[in-house]
# Entry
Amino acid sequence: MPATSPKILFQNEAYRLTSVGLQQNNGLVAELEGTRRLRITRPGAATRTVDIPEPPPGYPGMRSSLPILTAMYNMAVRELRANIHQGALLLAGANWSTVWTRDIAYAAALGAGLTEPSAVRNSLKSRVKGGVILQDTGTGGGWPISTDRVAWALGAWCLYQSTGDREWLAYCTEVLVNTLEQDSVLRIGNNGLVPGETTFIDWREQSYPAHMSMADIGASYALGTNILHYAAHQITAAMLKEAGNTAAAAPYAQRAEALGAAIQKHFWSRANMQYSMYLTEDGYAEDRVDSLATALAVFCGLTGEHNRRALAAIPRSAWGTPVFSPYKSDTPACYHNRAVWPFQEAFVMLAHAALGDTGGMAFSMASLLRAALAFGTNKENFRADTGEAEDTLLNSDRQLWSVGGMLGMYFYGMFGIQYEHNSLVFSPCVPKAYAGSHWLTNLRIRGMELNVHINGYGTDICSVMVNGKAASPMIPLDTTGRVHVEIELMPQEEEEAAPFPPAVEDLPAPQWDTPTPELLRWLPVPGAQAYYIYANGKAIGSVLGCTFSPPKNNKFLNTYRIQAIADNRTSGFSSPLEFPAPGARTVLQPLRIGAEAEYLVEHQQAWLDTQPHTAQLDYESCTLAAGTYSVRIRYCNATASKRDGDTCALRELLADGHCVGLTPMPHNTEQGNWEDYTYTAAHTLVLKAGPHRFSLRYNPATCTNGNATTNQCMVRELILTRIG
# Structure
């Protein structure tokens, strides 16, 4: 019989987790009654009771000699099933009545795909329209400001691996090829990276500095989003190979390899021994630590010498792994900022498990289990500084990807289910505190019905028995029928992990104080011990005071950034500044609309929509000296709010009749505020001396946005700045 005596699994300054419950230092107590009932007592509140039924007969089950593991698995199963809408789709949580691309993709990859394959398949298919993956709404109107829709590949591939469904394989291959080819219109930078917002962190005020517009975010390069594109290309290549189309797979494998090399080159910070969260359009590295992105680097197989160091460098709080650190000090409200999200904690846990780091895995397991016990549900998020969920901007019970993360802790963490070539492989990772006997039952993978028993702790396998016979921990995927697996782990001493760096608040961004090209001046930042100065994307010095005289040069445009640094090397956002040389800037007004120039522009502004007779806008002609120029459009898109929607306007920019790239014009203000103008991200062009003309053109082949119907904005002048 499973042991029921309390065993301490984890303890720190905030809480103690045992095999049968939780005690927090703020007075909260959560106690299991067997494995079927949870009692939660908060100071000053009535005791709450949560019933935890067992999974239905024949459903994949889990039982353990540690009651907490059995109970929290059963809670996750109950909540996953509760999220299924009318037997068909997996909704995002108790408070969310829809399916979202990244939610279902991450949930499927974490564990939902193994327990509810039919609902996962239906949900993934519901996020495909016109043969391409739908981008979730987000900053600036969705795609292409947000480009993380390719997370879909993770869930799709995981589902195929577990089911072997060839029809699903063919469907997913076509969808991914279509989507990646559509994404090929994105302006891939000279650095070889894919632009777009940070994956999942889609409330721009929670993670980006105030000076970055929606267009700036769309032109930046996020670590997590680039890793997803790397994974999507790898998975597409693998699917094509699986379907026997090796020749078609080669280009996607090559692109994945090139993107992986670019990620390692441009995001790894030798000074900080960690990956930067994102790079701005001009190449400046934002040295916050993105926990999900860092974990995805390991989870998606972006192997390298940095993985173990990067995981060790992720800052933690007593309650778990925050979404990013340092926090934004000027944003007290908690959602992504100052928060732990259990699904993201689950990816961190699986990254530790992949490296055999039982100490790191134990920390993340405790964070997941603690939260589920304290809330009586798998919450969407909670505060990183208090462990509480009440004071967050938005939250939900039974959040789908949080539920998926809890299931993944068992399937891919403790039991170490993996797929290698044509085999199912077990690579368990059981921290010493969780030593005991653990069973998975009725787990269906391909044609197998698996019952797996693991005994002991650690990562080294002592012996394996398959259906009563000594074997390796690898089972051919074409095996059918009931398969009983017994795995004995070899006890090993667990090295005491070095303490993780603490999550902290950043320093405010410096405020400029009447700077000139000859003397940069800014106001003092409280807590700053020094200031770093960057010129044209490169570090050029540091000072203790609040002035700096930049070296003279002959550039047409000089861009500067100032960043405050504390004595513990904590930094904050930088403050940018531009000084164009006299005569380096040319401003062109919109001239006429229509292929036959039949519509005049009024009041130096023009309304753009997708009607054939207004498909092209021409600007005034100009004569320029030979050189390199940046080109921006001043525009307004008030079709929806800055945070939400899917109506980012798209147009091709033409120079002398030739398309030079796609110009996104995302939501830049609140809905209906058509007087609020800003600038697009810049195109960089090399132009010959002489006359030139510029136009904006709607091309359905390249300019179809996520909405596919509303694609509108107002435009004013075009600004040319000579930069070389």
